[in-house]
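Quick entry between incubations.
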Amino acid sequence: MGRRNLCPNPAAKNNTTGYSGSATFARTTDFPTPACPRSTGVRATGSGFIQTPVAACAPGDVFSVSFYGDNQSGGFDFGHTVYVAYTRSAGGDAFPENFVFGIGASGSSARASRVAAAAPALATGIYLLYDSLSNGYGLTGVLLEKVGAVDTYADGDTASWTWDGTNGNSTSSEVTLPSQGSAAFALDLAVATTGQRPSAGVAALALGVAPAAAGTRPSAGVAALALGLAADARGARPSKGAAALGLDLAVEGRSGSGTSARGPWVVSRPSSGRIVTNVQVAN
Amino acid sequence: MALNQAGINAILEDGNEAVIWVAIGSGPTSGDQTSNQRVQLTSSVASGVITATGVPYAFTGTPAAGATHALLYSASTAGTFYGFDALTGDQAFNANGDYSLTSLTVTGSSS
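Done. Structure below.
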């Protein structure tokens, strides 16, 4: 199975749908790349916390969670608390674990990540809460992935990924391309010299291999004579026109096999007795 | 071996109009088919080469099942086995059980 980012609005590509918090915040397009994976995100314009959109989750699910923080506050960031939070079917949200995430100097960015413990009972969703922010702190590139190890950030705008629904406002999935291959068959007419004769002319037209129209392989150097056979429909005996060339190619029905001299020509007959398979000029 | 005698005769009889179905297999025999289905070959011909049209042909099968050979038959099920050719490319169905045959050619020669 391919990867999935279950955050339904991971980088505020279009809007801030799904984000909330006690801090006032706004969508901005000033996140530095490639330090951050996307230039869009959510940035605090006041003090308080911001929480990410919620990904669907069930009790026992193990998620790896991450986001990119960007400090444009004008001060050094020694760290803020990030809570791994769960919505629940009863009893209110749960905040079973947290960690401190520091970005450092103003103007810099960093990634916060964690493999969360198994989701608690009654869990219905998972999200991150970035606490105690002040004006200028932002987050983007939220990855909520149901796997046991943090992976690189990806969403529907990543190569070989697609949005599961609305572009920018849905979960996203890695596209698993089908395996693929090709085949090149060789139709070597040398293999077809069993005396079974196909309909005359059809194969010659389709494949452009007129010498083989009689189902046999002419000897080298007598292609011109063999081509005469292609016009010879299905009959065992070539037209007399061929004989006018000084050749008697009618060998079907003759007893014996092998070669015999006819004037300056040598004519051989296949054991199947159907058609001439070898016509050579005798030196 | 590529086309067998039955396959050669079918193409000599009808050229690129021969009714041929292609499957994906894990080996060279008629019983090695691993794709769930066969796809009827449509083709054009030029300069002695029959070239499949309408590619890629999509096949489904068991995830990770072998996909080492293209197998040719006279019918969508059962039928006469016309031969095989080793596939160039991926050698197994992907994790979703998908395989695409991107090209297939039959080249005539008399050498």
